[in-house]
Design a protein that fits this description.
single chain; alpha/beta; D-Maltodextrin-Binding Protein, domain 2; 2 domains; 12 helices; globular; disordered N terminus
Length: 350
């Protein structure tokens, strides 16, 4: 009789478990993720671009705070600029070994979302995000910061800055401008999209006029801005928030962002949960942390972008200009990028 009672209890327990899993698939999924995280070491693997995890970027402080709050270690893996980051993810696919990808923007979003490699997750606290920054309503890509593309100039060398894209083509600016490759860099892609948005089908003619002003086209933002600060040229493609860096750390207002009358394109950087990640529970906790004030207050003085929730800004942000017009240009197509590369070969001879 005792055997029958034991057997009955086992059958009853199994039935309850199966019923629970069938009725609450989300519960079952959450427990599988929890079990996976418990079997693995307490870490989350995050792919990002180089400057984010540099010694002066948000990475080190983010690691410190996230560990203190959760006991989870962040393993950062850097892959050049944002364009290179996406290309590497598409190449590796589900074998990437990452849990979160951080640093893609809205111009790279279409390719990232179409890959099927990202999983929807709305973080706790996401309702505090500025609504106009949530460009993916499925929350496969979640905003982490934003700013506006701009031409930053050395006011000691350029006393009269350009006020339009067309002004950049002026003879006074010959070999004065550092741009960034749109095929490998999100700022470069943003600038190219800006010219397409303003000039439409006449964009090639604009780039031909712009050609004499270009000193070089860097592979990424870090190398391009490095050339600028080294004095190689007095103008560089960057952000409206870049002057604040120099005020904060150098106490100078020498470097300014030129405000253009046609407005400035916004860049919204985002992070996403990878469907093939092995530490999804930890990854979701990171994304919850990412939209909290604990993370967002790190962003202004390290990544030099605006936070995506309402928090006070540092005093040095007073120097960063605000355009009266925000542009939302369409993402350039692969065909347009190929045509740009061919055109630049004609213009530069390289």
């Amino acid at each position: 009789m005792k055997k029958h009672k034991t057997a009955f209890r086992k059958i009853l327990f199994s039935g309850i478990v199966l019923f629970t899993f069938a009725l609450f698939p989300g519960y079952a999924k959450a427990n599988r993720e929890k079990a996976t995280d418990q079997r693995s070491s307490p870490e989350v693997v995050i792919w990002t671009y180089d400057s984010f995890n540099s010694e002066w970027g948000p990475g080190p402080e983010t690691t410190k705070r996230f560990l203190a709050e959760t006991g989870i270690t962040i393993k950062w893996v850097s892959h050049g600029d944002a364009g290179e980051l996406l290309s590497r993810l598409l190449l590796e696919g589900n074998n990437a070994g990452a849990d979160v990808i951080l640093g893609l923007d809205q111009n790279l979003a279409e390719r990232a979302l179409a890959s099927g490699l990202l999983e929807a997750y709305k973080p706790k606290g996401a309702d505090a995000l500025f609504p106009d920054l949530v460009f993916d309503k499925t929350y496969r890509l979640i905003p982490l910061d934003y700013s506006y593309f701009a031409i930053v100039y050395d006011s000691h060398r350029i006393p009269q800055p350009p006020q339009t894209l067309e002004d950049l083509t002026g003879e006074a600016y010959t070999k004065q401008l550092i741009l960034i490759d749109p095929r490998t860099s999100s700022p470069g892609l943003g600038f190219f999209a800006w010219t397409l948005d303003v000039y439409g089908e006449n964009w090639k003619a604009y780039w031909r006029r712009l050609g004499p002003s270009i000193l070089t086209i860097a592979d990424g933002w870090s190398s391009g801005y490095g050339l600028f600060t080294a004095g190689e040229a007095p103008m560089v493609l960057s952000y409206t928030t870049s002057p604040g860096v120099h005020l904060e750390y150098e106490g100078t207002e020498r470097y300014q962002a030129a405000l253009f009358t046609e407005g400035h394109p916004i860049q919204i950087e985002a992070a996403g949960l990878l469907a093939g990640g092995k530490n999804k529970g930890h990854a979701k906790r990171f994304l919850d942390f990412m939209v909290s004030s604990s993370f967002q207050e790190i962003i202004p003085l390290t990544n030099w972008m605006y936070p995506v929730i309402e928090i006070p800004l540092p005093a040095s942000f007073r120097i960063n200009p605000k355009s009266e017009k925000t542009r939302y240009p369409a993402t350039p197509t692969d065909r347009e990028l190929s045509e740009w590369a061919e055109l630049m070969t004609q213009i530069t001879g390289r």
